[in-house]
Amino acid sequence: MYNILFYEDEEGNRPVEQFIDQLDAAAGINKNARVQLEQLIYCLNRLEDKGTRAG
After folding, report:
1. In angstroms, rounded to a whole number, what is the distance separating the alpha carbons of residues 19 and 28?
2. Is the pTM of this model over 0.85?
């Protein structure tokens, strides 16, 4: 199993995590956001499981 590290700039901002949080907040009322979030979670889980060989 692999660990996924998200980018963090010098000021401590994590844009990827912020994007995921925004999708999560919008998923309750927006179907497209919910689908995007599900796809993103699926891909992150595959990366954690198989690393760069996820395909």
Report:
1. 15
2. no
**Integer CA distances (angstroms), 52 to 22, 32, 55, in order:** 26, 27, 7
For the cut 80, the answer to whether the pLDDT of residue 55 exceeds it is no
How far apart are alpha carbons 44 and 5 in whole angstroms? 11
Angle in degrees, CA 13, 18, 19, rounded to 5 = 135
User: What values do phi and psi take at 54, rounded to 5?
Assistant: -65, -25
With helix as H, strand as E and coil as C, how does 2-31 read?
A: CCCCCCCCCCCCCHHHHHHHHHHHHCCCCH
